[in-house]
Amino acid sequence: MSSAELLRLENVGRDFDVSRPWLNRVIEGVPRQLLHAVDDVSFAVRKGETLALVGESGCGKSTIARLIVGLYAPSRGRIEFDGVEISDPSASAATTGVRRRMQMIFQDPFASLNPRWRVHDIVAEPIIVLNIIENKNQVRDRVAELLTQVGLAPEDGRKYPHEFSGGQRQRISIARALSGRPEFLVCDEPTSALDVSVQAQILNLMSELQSRLGLTYLFISHNLAVVSHVADRIGVMYLGRLVEIADADELFARPRHPYTRMLLDAVPDLEMSGRQRTPVAGEVPNPLSPPSGCTFHPRCPHANERCRTERPELIWHGAKASACHAVQENRI
Amino acid sequence: MILEVKDLSIEFRTRHGTLVAVDGISFSIAPGEVLGVVGESGAGKSLTGTAIIGLLEPPGCIASGEIRLEGERIDNLPYEAMRRIRGRRIGAIFQDPLTSLNPLYTVGEQLVETIRTHLDIGATEAKLRAVALLREVGIPAPEARIDHYPHQFSGGMRQRVVIALALCAEPRLIIADEPTTALDVSIQAQIIQLLKRLARDHGTAVMLITHDMGVIAETADRVAVMYAGRIAEIGPVREVLRAARHPYTAGLMGSIPKIRIASDRRRAPLVQINGAMPRLNAIPAGCAFNPRCDRSFDRCRVERPELRPVGANLTSCWLYE
Fold first, then answer.
1. Number of Cβ pairs closer than 8 Å across A and B?
2. I want to staple B310 with a disulfide (CB 3.0 to 4.6 A). Which of B77, B78, B101, B320 is the partner?
3. Within the 213-242 window of chain B, which residues sit less than 8 Å (CB to CB) from chain A?
């Protein structure tokens, strides 16, 4: 693995305005309300690696995916791709060249493919829009090659998305993502809408494509077991913040942050080894009124006074980092 | 036995011919037992549950077989008689807790209404019972929460309310269809523990329908693996999960990602079952799994295997003939 950074996020934040309508605010005297979906997140993705982001619903992992591909603009901080800042919407001309080097795969293959288009046109669209190949015959050959690459037949290009099963549709999404010859793929829960046997097919396909084409992945998932099969490094998110990031093996062998430990504990015991699980207490709090200090403190067995008042920063120790007072103070 | 299902077949009669969605399945559940029913989407597991609670919608219908609740046939009951059984003797928990609750009524009103529909008690007593139920399913401060509306509860708490609703007439059987699928992992574990404890404490039989083997491993006593409308394998949960006999069960278990700590883990791909479950109008002859099975032989392609004892399990596979 080369250590060159392909993508870098620095103190990135994104707020959503969830205020009541203006008239209600004036009459009822309520202030504007902001939801901090992503707050002060920094990490880097190295060329050729898979970085996975895990966390429960509402932790901001999908918002990060959308910030990176430019579907949202960040409220704070900067995002760099291969040294070029892509987070400034006013400099869009300079970023187009960089943007076409990344693509995204979405969660729901039933919603992300246009039902009125033939598969050939869906896969060919990025090629035509990005002007990669102009000759029509060559476009057809390229689409056939892409479909073969993801395990479909070239003749499948004539069909419509509804003629395919969920797994095959996700293969079409992957073919479409690859058609622009990207280096970097943002995969937002690519297998969570699929059955397990099909999920295994897609995960294997993604690993194979990565080694064949030298792709870099940002892989977003709520499932730690899935992540352990694909990720080189893993970042754990909680309520919009990155609480721990480490090499995959290190994270599973020696989880540091109490939230990571809790998530690992919640993974069902399939071997039926009789491992006792510590039941997890509580739920993710309302992100509109997050707890003070460390946002995890109401659910944390190691919380003390400092955790309730002071927000822990992400502190690096070599290749791993965690945001926890108890870890810094060697209490756990 | 609380529930006995014998040779149940469910068909959809459409203009384009009859589709057989569930094809001659048999199983039973004892008091206090949790039977897990697993399978991929389209295997017929939810339809089986729907048929048991008598909520199959046309053109779906029970084509043959029988369903017995505590020895009494319930598959041929008239609508009104079935309505009295539903909720009273069979409780149901569905996947999405938001759509199982009425957003316009408080949780307490919904609980009291259900309790008074099924049990002959007064309003005050019903309310006390509702509070006790909410406490039993682990909702903090139930006296205050009972007057809240469903939207004021989080996902996990809502699912607890749905469980309380299913429990309120002390049913003998609970059909839980994907009760944890819409929930986050940390909440999933809590709901699983709750279901398991309640089944044990009340001697209720539970049919737990899910696609998640992890949930089954944690909750079920026995498990039935369904494929294309048939039971591929049924047996004690340990046996099925750790010593699967049917190639489909083995493939399914192998394809589940497990947390592995090994530096060469990425060089070992997951076991994958090629292809996908057949559509209902194209179920292959013989064993429905044969086109995807790497151990199939001539007999599998022509003759349909029946469930036979293999070890502690019942397996429908010609390999064990």
1. 129
2. B320
3. 213-215, 217-218, 237-238, 241-242
Number of domains chain A is built from = 1
The burial class, CB within 10 Å (0-12 / 13-18 / 19+), for B19 is middle
User: Does residue A162 sit within a domain?
Assistant: yes
Q: For A141-175, how does the pLDDT look when each residue is reduced to its tens digit (9 = 90+)?
A: 999 999 999 999 999 999 999 988 888 999 999 99
- Residue A76 to residues A9, A286, B15, Cα–Cα distance (Å): 11, 22, 58
Whole-structure pTM value? 0.84
CB contact under 8 A, B259 and A224: yes
Count of other CB atoms within 10 angstroms of residue A111: 10
CA-nearest of A317, A267, A257, A230 to A52 is: A230
Domain assignment present for residue A114? The answer is: yes
* pLDDT tens figures, B30-49: 999 999 999 888 889 999 99
By residue range, what is the domain housing residue A88?
A: 5-234
Answer yes or no: do A228 and B257 touch at CB < 8 A: yes
For A56, the token pair is: 């429960």
At the topology level, CATH places domain B3-89+169-320 in Rossmann fold (3.40.50)
* A323 located within any domain: no
Contact A201 B272 (CB under 8 A): yes
Interchain pair B272, A197: CB under 8 A: yes
The verdict on residue A270 lying in a domain is no
